[in-house]
Design goal:
heterotrimer, A alpha+beta, B alpha+beta, C alpha+beta, B: alpha+beta, Uridine Diphospho-n-acetylenolpyruvylglucosamine Reductase, domain 2, Enolase-like, domain 1, 5-stranded antiparallel β-sheet, 12 helices, 14 strands, 36% helix, 24% strand, C: alpha+beta, Ubiquitin-like (UB roll), DNA polymerase, domain 1, 2 domains, 5-stranded mixed β-sheet, 5 helices, 5 strands, 35% helix, globular
Chain lengths: 741, 294, 161
């Protein structure tokens, strides 16, 4: 932990990102910006039903159409043991949600592709759709998948419950007996969409030997390569994926939809194929997050010590298993040091699109429940909500509800910082309600590679594989500048394709600055070791007799030699004579990502005649471990806050009785606009992560977690009663006001 | 989007001719002004015209004239342009505000009052404000032009009184009497970018004793068409538009409403809020007069 | 339904293009002129990623048909910087780290520049409402608004000094 007390020169500064100019001038190439000569346009046919058996598909008219080069269905995918992803990309016997893809065409122009799609005739046997967890769990519910058995246990009857999750510790019954106050409530949240502004897009080109080149917007090029390989049963070595700039993902671009389809269409057409989803397709057929039902019971004694907590939650998975119910269960009590608890979770199939990760997947929903219940507990105890949390806060050494003991974490520091923050000390005006909540995310490590290439003039190129979704190139360059001791401006970071950089897991789980950053630091250290070797050679010393200080090779103190320090630039310039170009590399499977906690509070007003909630102020305090580029840390906090506010107030998937999504547009899926929100005040707390050389914790996921309950708690304060379900949209708030009066 | 031919006639006569030709051939023609509704609907195959008739190059649809007793506003003038006309803004602040509420700055660069009217959505923002201002629609057809009171223009969800060989030239608004002001309010869940869940436009005339002598109230998104609510106006006329009479007007709006529940709001919500907006718009119009904005 | 001939001026250059009538101005810019800086986020005028200036007025280029652009003067994000370098709005967006993924940025650049051309001293509320048609899902708008405020200050300083 020597770095914790060290003064940094690069880390903590706020330079302009290396890819900035391209992004403000329109030169940066995103998913839909790539083209190839002779390129065709692909288009997908989607189901008009939420649940139906496909009796037949007539492709003849489409195939005969002038300008159409290839037409495919799932019959053109490998037939044996298709994965869920394969069946999601092109439906097999049944279509499982409105918008489920079941055929695709490639044609000379978009309009011909559209006409060809419209000419395909499908015969359906319409089945009853299952449209909520409640409906799916009902005794005689129709089955989304007739072969699905809970936890894969063949001794069970088929069910819509794909999996169960369970955690417990201590004795909850005894714990509740010791409680003086108990809160027990049920909270419901509908699906929300990640809402990235760039729709999914790709170009695929398969050559005569079956080798596929794919350009796409993704959070992880190597995962796309794996998925294409898996879905099409193609050799990994026959697939090259080049990630474009990515126009937002938030978890939604960790999976594939159009890429394997484009590859197959290209393979059959013998031409490159471009596929770009429209916004309606994005809403109907790409991963929203789980709709959830959470029941929480939490008890505390009169001193405010939580004596027991119990949770039950059902997470909608969509049409295939795989909701984030496990992280939902793991997160719900994570901020608290609990002796007695029980957590149960269900992964439930419904006839809706397969859910995908959305920023801290699973945590916002379950923690909205707990943080709302804790707020009620604070009211019963007549205790400041931050004080109540401080009394029960997890800290270093606390056993996390999901098992391991926390190393150094920053929850207590965040709570203490919040308590004395001017925005918290200043009490809200009359008719303004304040709500507080805590956020959490585990963070992940996983695999990353990095190379450092040094040019003869001392300029450095970092080659790495983490798509830059929020300024991570700048963080990589700052960590390299700090480690090498050279100016930030002399470093550039390049995101490689799957054949120009080592394997790298996707950008997600808040791992990039931590894990890829670690690889970059290690690669820089590799270069430094080489620089020291070259300097030692020049000075005729042993390598061990050379130190690296602020960008210079210097003889170690006590080494008896008259030598001018050799700068990084000089070593680079002479590298040709001292053994060839300077190159460093490293690969990691990073452990110890370091959990990230936050405290948020917001001040709101409610128009009692229209039910409209107005967010007047919002403050986020969050532990970043170490803020490499503070502006981009704040950016994560601010962006997550506004996504959370949107989810709390207006965002929801609205289905009709047949399972048709009624608001598949930015017009009616209402993400916050600039005039909806105030400035988001940020305070970064730094409790260094012991597992990273600079103390980095991932900061991207946590910010979306606390705003849901913070907003709900603020509305509770204004109204004098609680609205348990989200979103707190005007009709829901007005109805609640009517019922209350 | 289905394939179509694009034409941009320069005169009313040419346009009528074109529409007539299309009708004779049995082909669907579609008038295009700002396109902010029409192009979206064509992209989703909700409109599939064979011929798209761009009327933005016709002088009559781009002209504003403010005369002593009436004002003419060309149907195709973008709202962003209208809102730069200070004279118009001072005469009909509520109407101009209603036009200014439609969509973003970008949409304002294209969307027109005439287009909003011809789209004939129950939720069209300018329509209740036009109703409050007693606007008349100037419609051109094969037999010349005709005038239709704006409250009679929209006949159902997305339908209006024009035949396929007619098109809207512009709107004629009476010059406001002395001490007359209007206001329009709509409710949306966000602050911008939404379709009105409820809308209400009010125009009031007060005499020097602050007594209301004329009033018109229009409401939107609470029935298949925007409505003129005569009873709300009657509740205000003869009063000082105080709390009691504004409340009575609000109740009249609620009684006139026959809303539906959809993704944007519920029956109960819309009925309640239409009264709230009528009340609040009434206060704004009244205070505009009392504060001497005339 | 043959193609139509469209003549327009884009970023100061005269251009001639053959288009299908159902192509949008956005398609024309991206597919025919290969100016891919202007982005498509929704195709319905709800996100502002495709914002351009047409005859000096902001429009969503996805809601302009290619033939409608005939004879028009169009400015895209590629036409905002000049030989002197980045426009102050672009520079301030960078300095404030006001972009994360950057896909909405071209629309914000064009819209914010248009605002400052029209109103050199907008307050926060004015900026927020002017930019309400430009969706950003990454930043929560905070740094974008501050960048535009800062750009306005800088423009004022350079014009008064």
């Amino acid at each position: 932990m020597a770095e914790a007390v060290r003064e940094f020169t690069a880390i903590g500064t706020r330079p302009i990102r290396p890819d900035g100019v391209e992004k403000v001038t329109g030169k940066a190439n995103f998913g839909a910006d790539f083209s190839l000569p002779g390129m065709l346009y692909g288009k997908v046919l989607r189901s008009p039903y939420a649940h139906a058996r496909v009796k037949g598909i007539d492709l003849s008219e489409a195939k005969a159409m002038e300008g159409v080069f290839s037409v495919i269905t799932s019959a053109d995918f490998p037939k044996e043991n298709p994965s869920d992803m394969s069946c999601n990309i092109l439906a097999r016997e049944k279509v499982l949600y409105h918008g489920h893809a079941l055929a695709a065409v490639a044609a000379r122009s978009q309009s011909i592709a559209e006409e060809a799609i419209n000419s395909i005739k499908v015969e359906y046997e319409v089945l009853q759709p299952v449209l909520s967890a409640d409906a799916a769990l009902a005794e005689d519910a129709p089955l989304v998948d007739e072969n699905l058995r809970t936890n894969g246990d063949e001794s069970f009857m088929p069910s819509n419950v794909a999996a169960t999750v369970h955690y417990e510790r201590g004795d909850v019954d005894k714990g509740f007996e010791k409680a003086d106050y108990i809160v027990e409530e049920e909270y419901r949240i509908p699906s929300a969409h990640q809402g990235y502004i760039e729709p999914h897009a790709c170009v695929a080109d398969v050559n005569e030997k079956g080798r596929a080149s794919v350009w796409c917007c993704t959070q992880g090029a190597f995962e796309v390569r794996n998925y294409i390989s898996e879905v099409l049963q193609k050799k990994i070595s026959d697939i090259k994926v080049t990630p474009s700039e990515i126009g937002g993902g938030f978890g939604g671009k960790t999976v594939v939809y159009v890429e394997p389809v484009a590859v197959r269409l290209s393979e059959l057409a013998g031409r490159p194929v471009k596929m770009v989803m429209n916004r309606e397709e994005v809403f109907r057929a790409t991963g929203p997050c789980s709709a959830t039902v959470c029941r929480v019971k939490v008890g505390a004694n009169k001193d405010g010590i939580i004596t027991a907590a119990k949770a039950w939650m059902a997470y909608e998975a969509g049409a295939f298993p795989g909701s984030p119910v496990t992280p939902g269960c793991m997160s719900i009590f994570a901020p608290y040091d609990l002796k007695n608890f029980v957590i149960d979770g269900l992964d439930v199939l419904v006839n809706k699109p397969k859910v995908a990760a959305y920023r801290a997947p699973g945590a916002p929903q379950s923690m909205h429940a707990m943080e709302s219940a804790v707020d009620e507990l604070a009211r019963k105890l007549n205790m400041d909500p931050i004080d109540l949390r401080l009394k029960n806060a997890a800290d270093e050494g606390t056993e996390a509800p999901y098992g391991p003991k926390y190393p150094a974490i920053g929850l207590v520091e965040c709570l203490k910082a919040a308590k004395v923050h001017p925005n918290y000390v200043n009490k809200p005006a009359k008719d303004v309600g304040r709500g507080v909540a805590v956020g959490f995310w585990f963070n992940i490590g996983m695999q990353s590679s990095a190379e450092i290439w040094v040019a003869p003039n001392g300029a450095v190129t970092i080659m790495e594989g983490s798509p830059d979704i929020g300024g991570s190139r700048a963080s990589m360059c700052l960590m390299a500048a700090e480690t090498l001791g050279i100016p930030y401006d002399s470093i550039n970071a390049v995101i490689g394709d799957t054949e120009s950089t080592g394997f790298c897991n996707l950008t997600g789980g808040s791992r990039t600055t931590f894990a890829t950053g670690l690889a970059v630091v290690r690669a820089c250290e590799d270069v430094i070791a080489e620089c020291k070797r070259r300097a030692a050679m020049t000075w005729d010393l042993d390598t061990e007799q050379v130190d690296w200080e602020n960008g210079f090779a210097v003889p170690r103190p006590g080494v008896n030699i008259e030598a001018e320090p050799l700068s990084f630039a000089e070593l680079a310039k002479t590298a040709g004579r001292t053994g060839g170009p300077l190159v460093g590399r490293a690969s990691v499977n990073a452990q110890g990502a370091g959990a990230c906690f936050s405290v948020n509070w917001t001040d709101v007003t409610v128009d009692r005649d229209t039910g409209k909630v107005d967010v007047q102020a919002f403050t986020a305090v969050q532990d970043a471990g170490r803020a490499i580029h503070p502006s981009y840390v704040e950016g994560q906090m601010q962006g997550g806050a506004v996504q959370g506010i949107g989810w709390a107030l207006n965002e929801e998937y609205i289905y009709d009785d047949n399972g048709v999504l009624e608001n598949a547009s930015f017009l009616d899926y209402r993400i916050p606009v600039a005039s909806d929100v105030p400035m988001i005040d940020c305070q970064i707390v730094e409790v260094p992560n012991p597992s990273h050389p600079y103390g980095v914790r991932g900061v991207g996921e946590t910010p979306i977690v606390a705003p849901l309950a913070a907003t709900a708690n603020a509305v509770r304060e204004v109204l004098g009663f609680r609205i348990n379900d989200l979103p707190m949209s005007p009709p829901r708030v007005l109805e609640a006001l009517d019922n209350a009066s | 989007m289905s394939r179509f031919g694009y034409v941009a006639p320069k005169s009313v006569a040419d346009t009528i001719h074109l529409l007539h030709d299309c009708e004779t051939r049995g082909e669907r023609a579609q008038i295009l002004a700002g396109g902010t509704d029409v192009i979206v609907q064509m992209r989703t195959f909700d409109r599939e015209p064979r011929t798209l008739v761009d009327v933005k190059y016709i002088e009559e649809l781009n002209r504003v004239s403010i005369e002593d007793n009436e004002t003419y506003i060309g149907a195709a003038i973008p709202s962003g342009v209208l809102n730069e006309n200070q004279k118009l803004k001072s005469l009909y602040p509520g109407l101009l505000e209603s036009a200014d509420l439609i969509g973003s700055t970008q949409i304002q660069g294209r969307a027109s009052i005439g287009g909003n009217l011809c789209n004939s959505s129950p939720a069209g923002d300018t329509i209740p404000a036009l109703i409050a201002n007693a606007a008349k629609c100037l419609i051109a057809g094969t037999h010349g032009t005709r005038n239709v009171p704006v409250e009679d223009f929209v006949t159902g969800v997305g339908t209006n009184c024009m035949t396929r060989t007619e098109f809207l030239l512009g709107l004629i608004l009476p010059r406001p009497r002395p001490r007359t002001q209007d206001a329009y309010l709509r409710f949306i869940p966000r602050t911008e970018m939404d379709i009105a869940v409820v809308g209400a436009g009010v125009s009031l005339t007060l005499d020097h004793d602050r007594v209301c002598t004329h009033a018109r109230v229009g409401i939107g998104a609470v029935a298949p068409t925007p409505l003129l609510v005569t009873k709300a106006a009657e509740a205000l006329i003869g009063t000082q538009c105080d709390e009691t009479s504004l409340q009575a007007a609000a109740d009249a709006c609620r009684a006139a409403a026959s809303p539906i529940t959809d993704k944007r709001g519920t029956v109960v919500y819309r009925r309640k809020v239409v009264g709230v907006l009528c009340y609040r718009a009434g206060v704004i119009a009244r205070d505009r007069i009392l504060n001497g904005q005339n | 339904m043959s193609k139509v001939h469209v003549e327009l001026n884009v970023n100061g250059q005269p251009e001639e293009v053959l288009c299908e009538p159902q192509q949008s101005l956005l398609d024309l810019l991206r597919d025919e002129l290969h100016l891919t800086g202007t982005k498509e986020g929704c195709g319905t005028g709800d996100c502002g990623a495709c914002t351009v200036l047409m005859d000096e007025r902001l429009v969503c280029s996805c809601l302009v048909l290619a033939p409608e652009a005939n004879g028009k003067k169009v400015v895209t994000v590629e036409g905002i910087a000049d030989q002197n370098g980045l426009h102050v709005v672009q520079q301030k967006l960078l300095e404030h780290a006001a972009l994360q993924c950057g896909v909405c940025t071209p629309g914000f650049v064009v819209a914010a520049k248009a605002l400052l051309d029209k109103n050199p001293d907008p307050d926060e509320t004015t900026i927020r409402y002017w930019l309400a048609g430009n969706l950003c899902r990454c930043t929560g708008y905070d740094k974008i608004i501050r960048a535009v405020q800062d750009a306005a200050q800088e423009l004022k300083a350079t014009t008064t000094s």
